[in-house]
Predict the 3D structure of the following.
Amino acid sequence: MSPLHLSFYSSFTLSALGLAFHRTHLISALLCLESMMLSMYIALSMWPIENQAASSITMPVLMLTFSACEASAGLALLVATTRTHGSDHLHNLNLLQC
Amino acid sequence: MAYFVSFLGVCFVLGALAVASNPSPYYGVVGLVLGSAVGCGWLLSLGVSFVSLVLFMIYLGGMLVVFVYSVSLAADPFPEAWGDWRVVVYGAGFVLVLAMGVIVGGFVEGWKFGVVTVDGGGVFFVRLDFSGVAVLYSYGVGMFLVAGWGLLLALFVVLEVVRGLSRGAIRAV
């Protein structure tokens, strides 16, 4: 595997692991999600560069658009959690007790 | 020059590591800013300046600025930076996972350097990324309109989730 491909594969995996493990703050999980989106942007723009397919350059731009929508929804949830519980600590989100 | 691009690739992974290793969110955003600045330089080194500047302006200048404002909601009395032992243990664990993955996956053989790019095709000297994004407005106008409508919808989603007092989604008070 070429080292640049290894670079964004491993940063995606690290961010996914960071999202999966226990965090103190909800916004730390949202930051890991943003880091996954960043590595996916780099990966999606690497493909049309290597294959010289110009019309596929629209893919990273569209992905960034939808990731902006997702980030805004995540931040709205963060604001709603802080207004309800006073902080964004994940142990406050305990309604689902299973 | 190839070594410089590889150094940018290593810095990209270090930025992701800085976010994933559970520091206080004030310091996690630093890792994300580093990762996006280095990713922008990486795309520039490959020749596609348009998508690099889109990353810089939209991601770093739009989304991350909003994230930095929202980080003020996550106030810790004693914020943990990367010198704190809890963050160091997380970071060391992630480096171990990365090393195990590289060794087991057999990635240390077969180092192929270079991602080729050209600025022209035959007798036409058209930049790859500029001509590609122009497709979004001509043949890809359906997707463009769907993306714009999705952004408008996201605005109303945010307004409804944040509203409280008997019509909200999360609020209890």
